[in-house]
Amino acid sequence: MTRLSNATLPHLPETIARPGYDGGKVTVGIVHLGIGAFHRAHQAVFTDEVLARDPSWGICGVSLRSADTRDALQPQDGLYTLKVQDGLGETLRIIGSVVETLVAPEDPQTVLVRMADPATRIVSLTVTEKGYCHNPATGTLDETHPDVLHDLQNPGKPRSAVGFIVEALALRQAAGVEAFTLLSCDNLPSNGDVLKRVVSRFAELRDPGLAVFVGGVACPSTMIDRIVPATAESDRAAIALALGVEDAWPVVTEPFRQWVIEDDFPLGRPQWEAAGAVFVPEVSAFETMKLRLLNGSHSTLAYLGYLAGAETVAQAMALPGMQPLIEGLMRDEVSPTLPALAGFDLSAYRDALIARFNNPSLRHRTWQIAMDGSQKLPQRLLATIRDRMRAGASYDRLVLGVAAWMVYARGLDEARQAIDVRDPLAGRIAAMTQGLDDPEEIVVALLSLTEVFGGDLSGDAGFRAKLVDALSRLFSTGAKAEVSAW
Q: d(Cα 464, Cα 444) in Å, to the nearest integer?
């Protein structure tokens, strides 16, 4: 079948929305590190909607690991399909904002040249929590990380996002070019602050003069929200049938989207507000709300749902007791810890989350959400637990989510079948829990991961006792029965 491309774009059915600008006039103004499905369903869509206003904000997408995205999009002139669906139907739209794709391991020099180009005014990131080479419990650079050590020794051939950013800034400093704005779009509390901290420390380890230049880089924090499940082969087949051409790399998402951004862009920015983005002086209250309500609930759903045999979020929500459990977690345990947001209807937001989780059209796999739990738990569940402990309040649902992660992370499901655990600490967790079946021994072993639990939770007897109790119940009755009790 013929591929989607600039040549085939004019011949698509009239029902397919397409870019409202001349793609030939779009030039790169943004370099995005980590061009996965989420970026292409979120930031690239916001950008696509405003390129007609200023075509100098096209995106160069950089893959830091795999060549899959480049190999799929390059024959399509960067075009791909956005499929938006819910229980009421679906819409298809062609996105054209990604005008260049590069693969960092193949040619790091080309990536660095693009980042150092004065036309590049923003470098954005969706590299997941583990891509920051930081300690999740402290938010500081992990100076023993293999990629950090490599990049300090080989600055011209970096592996990590941090290494690429600092070397590109070094090139700009040497050429007398102003620093670009760094825009984190990952689910980290105060993500701009975390990014600024790790790149500043990395630059300091390289050269004090460079550290001064990097210290002046703008790093606005953001809050992003859109559920983007992995694209299935059935999605590709259905999209090809609707387009009449093949699209090797479409993305599927929900109608809801949200982007809250601190407005600090010294070299300018796209007019994303025209596409619905919200610019605020300080974003932390919004990101805390989202991390704890949406992401914390998602992780709890993922671990309990996977252990109970639910492949997708919607299937997990359909388990007896799951919706009351998640509603209670959000309403009774998470919401009291949130900062006030003037004029914001928190109850309506919670209701919208429940409706989104129940969307039957999104096959958002519990296994996909469960990835990298050791990096996600500190922000999504453990920070909330700390606040509840300080308030002397209960956190029974939250601790159940942590206990479910402990079952999942050791790599054996309830039938003692192997789980394909994708996590930077998977090897260590497997080694420290090997042969352990006693809940207390497992809890003690995993609480020794201070990079996850910090020194406070690791040494808290009350927290440990609640975890042992929750883990014992999961082992004795199973996740499905435990959830049904709610």
A: 8
